Amino acid sequence: MAGRPSLSWQLLLLGAFLSLPDPAGAQTRYSVPEDLEPGSFVGNIAKDLAVDVRSLSARSLRLVSEGGRQHFQVNLANGVLLVNEKLDREALCGLSSTCFLQLQLVLESPLQLHRVEVEILDVNDNAPQFPKKEVSLEITEVANPGTRLPLEVAEDPDIGSNSISTYELSASDHFALSINVRGDGVKMPEIVLEKALDREKVAAHHLTLTALDGGDPVRSGTARITVHVLDANDNPPVCDPPISKVFLEENALSGTLVTQLNVTDLDEGLNGEVEYSFKTSNNAPDTFLRLFSLDPQTGQITTKAPLDYEDSSAYEITVRARDKGSPAMEGHCSLRVELVDVNDNSPDIVLTSLSSPVQEDAPLGTVIALVGAKDSDSGENGHVHLQISNDLPFKLVSSFKGHYSLVTTGPLDREKAAGYNITVMATDAGSPRRSTEQTIFLQISDVNDNMPRFSSPSYTSHIQENTLPGASVFSVSASDPDVGANSKLSYSILDTGMQDVPLSAYLHINPENGTIYALRAFDYEQDKVFQVPVEVQDAGSPALSSTAMLHLFVLDQNDNAPTIVYPPVPRGSVFQQTVPSSAEPGYLVTKIVAVDADSGHNAWLSYQLQETSEPCPFRVELRSGEIRITEALRESGAPHRLVVQGDFLFIKPFSHSTTGESMAAFDQVASASVSPCDGQAQPNPDWRFSQAQRPGTSGSQNGEEGGAWPNNQFDTEMLQAMILASANEAADGNSTLGGGAGTMGLSTRYGPQFTLQHVPDYRQNVYIPGSTATLSNSSGKRDGKSSGSSGGNKKKSGKKEKK
Fold first, then answer.
1. Contacts of 425 (CB under 8 A, 6+ apart)
2. How far, in Å, CA of 231 to CA of 139, rounded?
């Protein structure tokens, strides 16, 4: 034992010399002797793996052992692999010729796996030992030279050169030592009789058997052997062959015959009858006796329990054949039972590491998981292949034997798949094949890659004018397929700056639900339509947004009273019209023209005289506003005062007149009535003029020119604009009748589709006092004059009246 420190130092240097990384790059291998103290150097793992020592702690280096025990540790300060606990090769690997410990180094950010293999080198730290220190043997005195007496085999847990190398026998005149080599390489000592015995001279021979190993220094163990010389039965049982081998499948049923021993004994009678028994040793006798049974009479060896190749691939059985002579003689049969592996184990899937959840914008080739596979069977039965479904955006990449990386092969989209159930199938190459499945759930985390979408790119809504502030106008909605903050939406109204007053002064939108509210009352006569751009934005980073356009139409209400534009009668004043006393029924006194700032049916007007208790010789046309005489006037009659009532207007006549002719006078006051005209029915055709009524040289043209009453809001608004424009021209006294016959210039101002058939021209209602020309009524009737001379007369009478 004095030389052991020197040997340990030499082995330590040898381990350091062998601690070189595997040039193949697949794994790193180190070799260290057993019995090193904790903290002993194994190898510079950081240097051999080309990993920055400063990143070991940040990357959370983990050391994983397959057996579960931490035999080694890594110094994170310098990246050195150290022994964590004292290593006993015999306890770790038993009698195996090689002893390797498999380690896995796992680094995070990025995820990496390195395989490290540490070989435990044997140290000659065990001396050979015999099963028994005292051995007693018997031999008949008539034994012939050459008779062999088998001895117990010494046991040495060390392997290789450190195991048993040879045996030595103390000096003897009658016995010599013979060493046989068994099928598994084990040396079996035997005592060989070299010289005939004489019991009467020496009844017992005392020998010393020494077992020596091949270590440096050499270790040894001894056993004392006493050979008793007996008389008589001088032929021992003999096995044929003495050493045999049997192959047996591991799944053999209990009771299966292993072998039938062939033993002969040349003696007769009891000396030739043989009994069989197992000869045990220090090799785990309990396990051996649990698996096999031996018939002591026949020598048949059978199984009595299931055999498992994965527990042990072979068994060495020694059978003692002993006769019934006196003294009894025995022989030994050596049997090696080798098990044939069958594919009786399914592969195992080992999930080493899993990164879940993974972002949906993970690049191609991102490592998701590290997966390993192993199979307890051997050969092709233990060769395992891993695979996953081809319709998934993932694949398995083999790192080295039995280890795979699960990586992405295609884009991930959380909106299409929020997670994946990845079924990994491990299949071996045995026959029949065996497989195992394990499902890995991978969750996909969301990124803000989808902009919010409105249910429609544009919306249309209507609101009544004069709606109270705070009223709900419309509600827009949008959706975002993302989740969490990426799908939290906020609505806002964009101010384009196109209006004089910003949209924010009219409308407000609830940023959470998209409901739009009015902040003020709308006036149709001021703004008829609003283009409201609405934006929706999510809360992601960076935020995404989209816009939609709301077309908000303001609907007209009947909130404006009609206004008389002809004759121009300022409020509080009176308009007077002289009527000749000779005027006949049907005579056109004047024509009332009124406009309404509202639109559509709200702007349709009708006229009527205010009812009085006294009879009135006048009437007003319901649609045209023409005031005509219904009966002859009395020259001495009192002046007439007319009140023309429109939908919203009254025209009140004067109570007297100071002229010598009949006179109609009226003023304008506002009415409280706001009911629509005749249930919004279209006016009758009297609203339009005949060609004979129109001023100018075309006044002599005959026939009615039909025209359609405006049927939509746009046409009505255009007509209102035309009427107001014409009224303003008349008030200024600058208007002309140009623009073509029967058009009053409207076709050039508003387009050829608008002519006198659509608009009443209040200027032709102006009666020139003293003129014999009068405008025809709705039936084309003239005031005592033919239509052919009306033009010249109207012009002449006009001059006279001006005078």
1. 386, 387, 388, 435, 436, 437
2. 8
Indicate the SS3 state at residue 483. coil
- On the CB side of 777, CA atoms within 13 Å amount to 18
- Contact 516/507 with Cβ under 8 angstroms? yes
Tokens for 278? 């197992």
Q: Which two tokens stand for residue 558?
A: 């009947």
Q: Which residues contact 42 (CB under 8 A, 6 or more apart)?
A: 15, 19, 30, 32, 72, 80, 81, 82, 83, 118
Which whole-number Å values give the CA distances from 700 to 275, 745, 769, in the listed order? 157, 19, 21
- Is the CB of residue 663 less than 8 Å from the CB of residue 653? no
Angle at 359 between CA 356 and CA 360, to 5 degrees: 120
799 in Cβ contact with 707 (< 8 Å):
no
Which residues 6+ apart lie within 8 Å of 127 measured at CB? 156, 213, 219, 220, 221
586 is written with which tokens? 């049907």
d(CA 606, CA 524): 22
- Structure token pair of residue 78: 């310098």
Backbone angles phi, psi at 45, to 5 degrees: -70, -35
Which residue in this structure is represented by tokens 């006092």?
769
- List the structure tokens of 644: 């023309």
- Beta carbons of 139 and 227 less than 8 angstroms apart: yes
Q: Are 791 and 699 in contact (CB under 8 A)?
A: yes
- In which element (H, E) is residue 427 found? strand 419-428
Question: In 10 A of CB 707, how many CB atoms?
Answer: 16
Pairing of the two strands 458-464 and 435-445: unpaired
Take residue 328 and report the two structure tokens written for it: 């009894």
Decide: 117 and 30 in contact? Cβ < 8 Å. yes
* Planar angle of CA 535, 541, 542, nearest 5 degrees: 60
Calpha distance 476→317 (Å, rounded): 89
The answer for residues whose C-beta is within 8 angstroms of residue 59's C-beta and 6 or more apart is 107, 108, 109
Among candidate residues 418, 459, 457, 462, the one with its CA nearest the CA of residue 441? 418
Give the helix ranges, DSSP H, for 403-510.
Answer: none
DSSP assigned state of 793: H
pLDDT band at 493 (very low <50, low <70, confident <90, very high): very high
Pairwise CA distance, residues 120 & 12, whole Å: 11
Helix (H, G, I), strand (E, B) or coil at 654: coil
User: For position 796, what pLDDT does the model report?
Assistant: 36
Whether the per-residue pLDDT at 691 is higher than 60: the answer is no
Q: How many CB atoms lie within 10 A of CB 751?
A: 10
pLDDT digit string, tens, across residues 586-644: 888 888 888 888 888 888 888 888 777 777 888 888 888 898 988 887 765 556 666 65
- Please tell me the distance from the alpha carbon of residue 118 to that of residue 70, in angstroms, as a whole number: 13
Q: What is the pLDDT of residue 767?
A: 36
Residues in the chain: 803
Q: Rg of the Cα trace of the chain?
A: 62
CA atoms of 518 and 552, how far apart (whole Å): 11
**Inter-residue contact 244 to 297 (CB < 8 Å):** no
Mean pLDDT over 51-57 rounds to: 83
Q: Hey, is 744 helix, strand or coil?
A: coil
**DSSP character for 783?**
S
Tell me the CA distances in angstroms from 686 to 446, 696, 743, 774, one per residue in order: 73, 21, 18, 17
> DSSP for 100-168?
EEEEEEEETTTTEEEEEEEEEE-------B-S-SEEEEEEETTPPTT-EEE-PPPB-S--GGGSEEEEE
Distance CA(542)–CA(449), nearest Å, equals 9
Please tell me whether the peptide bond between 481 and the residue prior to it is cis, using omega within 30 degrees of 0. Answer: no
172 and 192 in contact (C-beta within 8 Å)? no
Q: Which pTM was predicted?
A: 0.45
d(CA 310, CA 375): 10
